[in-house]
Amino acid sequence: MKPVSFYLLTDTHYFENELGAEGKAYEDYMQKEQYFLRESSAIVKSTFARLAEDKETDIVIIPGDLSKNGEKESHKCFIKELYKLKESGKKIFVITAGHDYNEWSYAYKNDERIQVEGTDFDELCEMYRDFGCGDAIAFDKETHSYVAEVTDGVRMLAICCDSPNQPKGAADERLTAWMKEQTDKAKNDGCSMFAICHYPVIPPVPVFDLVGDAKIKEWRKVASFLADNGVELVLTGHMHIQSINEFRSEKGNRLIDICTSCLAGSPAKYRKITVDESSVLKVETIDVEDFGWDMNGLSVQEYFDRQFSNAIVTRVRKALDGGEGIVKHLKSFAGKRFDNITVGALGRLLMIKVDEPFKNKKLTELIGEVGVGIFSGDGAYVEGTPVYNLISAVLKRFSFIIKKVEPKLEKEGVKVDLKNMLLNTIGNNKGYSDNNAKFILK
Ligand SMILES: [Fe+2]
Ligand SMILES: [Fe+2]
Prior knowledge:
Blueprint: E1 4-8, H1 24-30, H2 40-53, E2 59-63, H3 72-87, E3 91-95, E4 106-109, E5 112-115, H4 121-127, E6 138-140, E7 145-151, E8 154-159, H5 173-188, E9 192-197, H6 219-228, E10 231-236, E11 243-248, E12 254-259, E13 269-275, E14 280-287, H7 300-319, H8 325-338, H9 343-350, H10 363-375, H11 386-397, H12 399-409, H13 418-426, E15 437-440
Parallel strand pairs: 1-2, 2-3, 8-9, 9-10, 10-12
Antiparallel strand pairs: 1-13, 4-5, 6-7, 7-8, 11-12, 13-14, 14-15
Helix pairs in contact: 2-3, 7-10
The protein binds fe (ii) ion (2 copies).
């Protein structure tokens, strides 16, 4: 691949505070949200200011979910920030995604959630015309996918798989045919090509292969299509996770998917990506720094992680509501104990040995920590660590259920090994980091 260098940030989820972000409805909502609303504009402004200071890297790429939920005012204010960044000398390329035009454009005022003006999908391209699609070499009207030459001889295939005009999170036949025209053209013109896509093309962690919305539909087919048509690198977002994955097509071609976290939520990171003269791809991860907010004595990372960890626990607690018959009874039993049970007490209930560091730890605390850890990438819970031993023992205890469930989870004829999937999700066994890595491209 020819040399190129750029910043990659995604899922900015910009929210304009003038719309309203306060009161009981807001506080309730934030109990279960991974990323910040009220802080998002400050995070974007301070990050853009840092990017502007770097005079060496002049390309910035943002693959979707630019606004919280398509509020017109959020888009307008975010676009103002994009123009300021552009004035500092940057070429900016964005695509939009599901959070940029949906019907859930809300604000929070006087303890109530209120509907605010949203944005139609068809308006987005005109609004963001100076940030990619306006200067495109090729443009697909249906989805707003486009091709741009980001630097001499390097083209970017911007795949909008999250438009209302085709199945959600998919590259259907028509879009694939359009992409084939673009990859062929790049080849004929002697250009290198990489891609961006809002949805991950390769599941960021193994268990996400079982979650419908966590990766592009028929991902093996899409990944093979890209790899076999000269695209070796795709940059993605949507799942708000730091992850890098490789896939080999049946023909032996490789695709690398670099999935990056939400800018406005834990783990709050972005990337600097460089391909040098020798086709060495270098991925560097950068933390969102202090954005001028009162963090009640917490570090920036602690502030982000606390929000996410609380949201994970709230969601688990909510999942323990409801059900019918015996399930309702069991869920209610678990729900009542969930907040206070220690890992040691749970171990005694399940008759499994719990390592010393966890005996007195609250289960909620451990669930929050492990969840935050998975989304930060570089899964730390590899074989031999206390968390690995604990989860391994729990999976062994429930192996009779797992064996029954596995055949039902099979898709596209690929067998499911749930235990390995889960253990490779909590621990990174890929041989390279999800945050800072090097690869040699073709
Ligand atoms: Fe998002
Ligand atoms: Fe998304």
